[in-house]
Design brief:
Length: 296
């Protein structure tokens, strides 16, 4: 298939591009910079020049393509709610380009939206319509397209990692370096699901090839890694002490991350593994933290 891939130069998207090309697909990758375009060309992908801030123009990328995988997202958390709304507009514009066809459209979401109730693991066959996470608008936009008859499926991400980056954990590592301590809130019992980058890229390809309208898949290899274990691994790697903070101290220390530090973001992927025959084999999150590259 010839696939239009947004986010093709990003952390997850570049791995997805490489996986698609290895499997014999053609990739038309979105890039807004010359450097990104050169990186895509080096992989063997075609380049589509565009920008998330002009969503209607992105629809041109779908012309002549057999499918779309949407991994792009603006990760500026200082403007998170607005960036989520922008993502929903991009999904709507890409969906409009597929109207009247059954070309598959794989949309990126997050495992948090599979949470049935507080204290329970997120599952694939649930969509928490009452979530207060602003990014819910992305999955909601995709589900609206699904209701209109489009062939939409979802890959929900956990903390995706290799030895360079580890999702939100990368932010904790940067904070630890700046503050000189690896901190947790309270006992650090909250758990975060995680999955290796290469296994996640494979999951996107399998989701695309399944072409199952409404399919929802969790990129989860480890159901829940405790935050105290994450903090210990960061402290070990950076030779920093691990400290426990009271709730008021944690708010000051973690800033915008403080909400996540009290969020139990564990999730299951049993249905994903069964439906797509996807069985992650990469290193665990703690191993990748311990093997963290100096450039990370």
């Amino acid at each position: 298939m010839r696939i239009f891939l947004t986010g093709a130069t990003g952390f997850v998207g570049s791995a997805v591009a490489a996986e698609l090309l290895r499997a014999g697909h053609q990739v038309l990758g979105l890039s807004r910079s010359k450097t990104g375009a050169e990186a895509l060309a080096a992989l063997g992908a075609e380049v589509f020049h565009g920008d998330l801030n002009a969503p209607d123009s992105l629809a041109q990328g779908a012309d002549g393509c057999d499918a779309i995988i949407h991994t792009a997202f603006d990760h500026d958390f200082s403007n998170f709610a607005a960036n989520c709304e922008k993502d929903a507009r991009v999904i709507g514009a890409l969906g409009a380009a597929l109207e009247g066809s059954q070309r598959p459209f794989v949309i990126t979401s997050v495992t948090a939206f599979g949470t049935v109730a507080p204290g329970q693991a997120a599952i694939e066959d649930h969509f928490d319509t009452h979530s207060r996470n602003p990014r819910i608008v992305s999955e909601r936009a995709g589900r609206m397209l699904l209701e209109r008859g489009l062939n939409v499926s979802f890959v929900r991400l956990s903390q995706i990692h290799d030895s360079r980056r580890q999702g939100l954990v990368t932010e904790l590592i940067g904070l630890a370096r700046r503050q000189g301590v690896s901190a947790i809130r309270g006992d650090g019992a909250c758990r975060w699901a995680a999955a290796p980058l290469k296994d996640t890229a494979l999951l996107y390809r399998l989701a695309l090839e399944a072409q199952t309208p409404g399919g929802c898949y969790h990129a989860v290899a480890e159901e829940g890694v405790p935050l105290h274990a994450i903090a210990a691994a960061i402290g070990e790697r950076l030779s920093l002490p691990v400290v426990s903070l009271a709730p008021d101290e944690a708010v000051v220390h973690f800033g915008w991350l403080s909400h996540f530090m009290e969020s139990d973001m564990f999730a299951l992927s049993a249905a994903t593994q069964e439906r797509l025959n996807w069985h992650p084999v990469g290193p665990g999150l703690l191993d990748d933290i311990r093997n963290l590259g100096e450039a990370a």
